[in-house]
Design brief:
Blueprint (H helix, E strand, L loop, with lengths): L20 H10 L7 H6 L5 E12 L2 E12 L3 E5 L6 H9 L3 E9 L2 E2 L5 H6 L3 E4 L11 H7 L7 H14 L1 H4 L11 H13 L5 E5 L7 H16 L4 E5 L3 H7 L2 E6 L2 E7 H6 L1 H7 L3
Parallel strand pairs: 3-8, 3-9, 6-7, 7-8
Antiparallel strand pairs: 1-2, 1-4, 4-5, 9-10
Helix pairs in contact: 5-6, 5-8, 8-9
Length: 285
């Protein structure tokens, strides 16, 4: 008889006990008892925080998802948000970019309040770009046309064209396919195009939603290599939500574990990765 392999949490690996989604959420709530204070979170950002979220209450319609949420990240750092489904991870990205209702609290960049700016204003004036989940390219348009779409807020079409050429100079893989329909690209190439389209506006901060979703392992490594290059060489600040918790935490300088709209654990990415409770609940053992 072949022994059935059971998996816990939403990571990878086999364990002897199956944990339901409800069990994961219940035990995750238990580790929130010693949730970090704002001052503890701020210490994780190097020097002065570039982006700060303080006491944010936000959600959709009248429903509050984030409860007095705090986040701090320094220039050129990366931060990965993990947690059970419904914890509010994507809502953090949505709130930063202007897709939610803000009930109270504030979001600042370099000390400047950007809480109530529109998404267009955050992209063009505040230097924030949102990289959506997979399947956001326009398949019938060429690679070049997709990139030019990323510069729709540029003052002049020539500015978007110049920025697009800079992307082609950086990524030969896209340059070789500039006149091909985006629909013929591989999964990894489409993800590269989505990231590159965000770069056309030359943002300072990248909000990345599930960069590995729907990709084969070899493409996942490629995408994280691209993000690492953007952080280490170009100095981009990256905040991501990643369902592949091991990959995301291995990449990030800072890791937050969210539970019910609040931060339950916040440490360096490596320390969160090695936390036994996090491993059991979210990493598969």
């Amino acid at each position: 008889m072949v022994k059935k392999k059971n998996v816990s949490g939403y990571g990878q690996g086999g364990v002897d006990v199956v944990m339901s989604v409800d069990q994961v959420a219940k035990e995750a709530a238990a580790i929130s008892a010693k949730a970090p204070k704002a001052k503890d979170l701020e210490k994780l950002s190097k020097s002065e925080p570039l982006l700060s979220i303080k006491n944010l209450k936000a959600g959709y319609g009248k429903m509050e998802i984030l409860h007095d949420f705090n986040l701090f990240i320094g220039e050129g750092q990366s931060l990965c948000l993990i947690g059970p489904n419904g914890a509010g991870k994507s809502t953090v990205l949505h709130s930063i970019f202007g897709f939610t209702n803000i009930f109270s609290g504030n979001i600042t960049i370099g000390g400047k309040d950007i809480t109530n700016l529109t998404p267009n204003q955050k992209l063009s004036n505040a230097g924030i770009a949102y990289i959506l989940q997979d399947k956001s390219v326009f398949p019938q348009m060429t690679v070049e046309e997709n990139l030019l779409m990323g510069g729709f807020l540029k003052n002049k079409p020539s500015d978007a064209k110049e920025a697009t050429e800079m992307v082609f100079d950086k990524y030969e893989r896209l340059a070789a396919r500039r006149n091909k329909p985006a629909g013929v690209l591989s999964g990894g190439e489409r993800r590269l195009l989505e990231i590159s389209r965000a770069l056309v506006m030359q943002p300072q901060i990248l909000l990345v939603d599930e960069p590995s979703i729907g990709l084969e392992p070899r493409f996942i490594d490629m995408v994280f290599g691209i993000l690492d290059d953007l952080q280490k060489k170009d100095g981009k600040t990256i905040i991501m939500v990643e369902q592949n918790a091991k990959k995301g935490l291995s990449f990030a300088d800072i890791g937050y574990v969210l539970v019910s709209g609040e931060t339950a654990i916040a440490e360096t990415g490596d320390n969160v990765l090695s936390n036994p409770a996090v491993g059991r609940l979210f990493l598969g053992g």
